[in-house]
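Figure S4 source data
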Amino acid sequence: MGQGRPEKQEKIPEKLKEEVERIKVKMSRIRHKLAVISGKGGVGKTTVAVNLAIALAMRGREVGLLDADIHGPCVPKMLGLHGSRLVAGPPGIFPVTGPLGIRVVSMDFLLPDEETPVIWRGPLKAAAIRQFLADIVWGPLDYLIVDLPPGTGDEPLTIVQFLPDMDGTIIVTVPSEVSQVVVKKAVAFSRKLGIPVIGVIENMSGFVCPKCGTYVPILGEGGGERIAKSMGVPFLGKIPMDVRICEASDSGEPFVVKHKETPAAKAFLEIAEKIEAFCEGKEA
C-alpha cells in the first residue's frame, strides 16, 4: 500500500453500497466494537479474545463474539460449541448462543466437519466477513469482540473498512523480544487506518510452579509493557501461564468461569474492567 491513504478511507465500490447500508443498520444496535489482533501467531490471541468476552459477560454485559479467522476458526471449540450450526430466519441469520449468553458467529459453524479446509482467496474471505456483519441478527449488544487472524491482511482490512465506528484494537503479545517487533506493526496498522489502540496485553507472562511456587519467566519478562511504553499506547496487563487455561479451552469450558480465583482469571477480569473504562470514557 506504500504511503497511500488509509484503507478505511478508500471509496466503497458501488456494488457493495447496499451491503454497507445493511451493516450500518445491524451495527447501530451495538454500543462498542472491538478487534483483538496480533502481529504474529502463537501468542494466544483467540484464548484472550474468548476469555475477555466471557469476562465482560460476567460483568453483566451483552456480548457478541465474531470469529473472523476464516482458515483456522477455533472459538467454538474453546466455548464448547463445536458442531453447532447457524440458523436462518426471516430477519437474517442468528448467532449461536454460548456460555453466559454470549452470541457467537464462526466459519466453523458452516463447515461439514473439523477436517474440511477453507481454501479461499482474499475476495471470498472478505465477502464472508461482510456477510457476517450484514446478515447476522446480532440484536442489541454492549460489546462485539472480533477475533482476527494474525497479521495485517485481508480479514483485518475488511473488518476495519466495513465495521463502522470501531472503538479500537486490543493487541496481544508475549514477553519475548521477537514478539515486540511485530507488535510495532500491529500498532502501526491501527494508526494508519485511524483506529485507536485500546492497549497491549502481555499473554503467557511467566509461569509459577504449582508445587514449589517458583516463578520462571519462560518467554522473557516485561516485553509487552516495554513495547507499549515505547509506542505510546496503554498497557492493559499481564496474563500468566496456567496449564488450566489450555485444559479449559480443550474441554470447551470458559477458564475465567471455571477458575475465577486464579491469578490468570483475575488478570482477565481486571483487563476487561480497563477496556470498559476506555469505552465508557469515549461515550462520556
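Figure S5 source data
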Amino acid sequence: MKLLARGHTLEWPRRPLIMGIVNLSVDSFSGDGLANVEAALEKARGLIGDGAEIIDVGAESARTNRAPISEKEEAAQLVRFIERWDGGGLLSVNTWRPAVARAALAAGGHILNDIGALPTDENARICAETGAALLIMHSVGVPKVAHTHVGYDDVMTRLDEFFAEKIALAESAGVPRDALILDPGIDFAKQRADNLRIFRELDRLAHFERPILLPVSRKTVIGDVLGIANPAARDAGTVACIVQGLLRGAAIFRVHNVRAAAQSVRIIGAVETAA
C-alpha cells in the first residue's frame, strides 16, 4: 500500500505516521488555538521536532457552538501559514470549503483533510487538479452543526458503505486511489458506543487497502469514559486509543501531544519487532 501526496510517496508496511495538530483558531475545543501565524509556525516546527511527519493546519474550528468565520478569512490565514512554512514534513490543510481548499492547495498544501464528508466531487476535483492527497472523513450532514442525535444500527456497516461510495466519487473525479486516506470520524455524528466499536473493529476497514487515519486526540468519547471534562487532560486516554489503533491497523494518528504519540508508536514497534 502506498500514498501519493503531491510529489511525495509513502509506502507501507512502515511505522505509523504522526499528524500534529496546529489550530489557527482561538476557539479550538482543546484550548490550544493560535491566531498568530508566527506562533503557529513555531509550534509546528516544535511538533516536527517531537516526531510529527505531517502537520494538519486548520483556521476554522469544527466546534458546533461557534459561528463560522468567512471563507476569505479562513483562506488568508491558511495561505499565510503555508507560504511561510519551512519545517519539512507534509502539510495537511484542514477545511471542507472548496474555495478555501483551492487557495490553500495552490499555496502548497500536500493533503486536503476534508471534514465535510465529501458531499459532492468538488473538493476531489481540486485534489485531482493539484495532485494533492484527499483525506475522506465520515460524518453526517454539514459541518459546524451538531449531529449528536445520529445513531446507527451497525456503525461499521455504515462506514463500509460510506467509504465505498466516496472512494468511487473521488476516483470518478480523477483522484487516484493511491492518493486517498480514510478517516472514520471519531466523535462526528457518533454516539459513545459507536466510537468505542470503531476502536474495537477498525481492522474491518482494511479491505479498502487505504491508509486509515485515526483522529483520537483528546476526543469527547475519552472524556466520557474517564469522566474528564477538560480536553487537555485526556492525553493518557489518547495514548490508550493509539495503542488500540496500532493493534487494529491504523496508519496515521492525528494528535495534539505529538511527543507522547510518537513514543507510544516507537515502543509498540519495538515490542512487535523484537527478536
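The first helix runs from residue 37 to 50. The chain has a mean pLDDT of 92.
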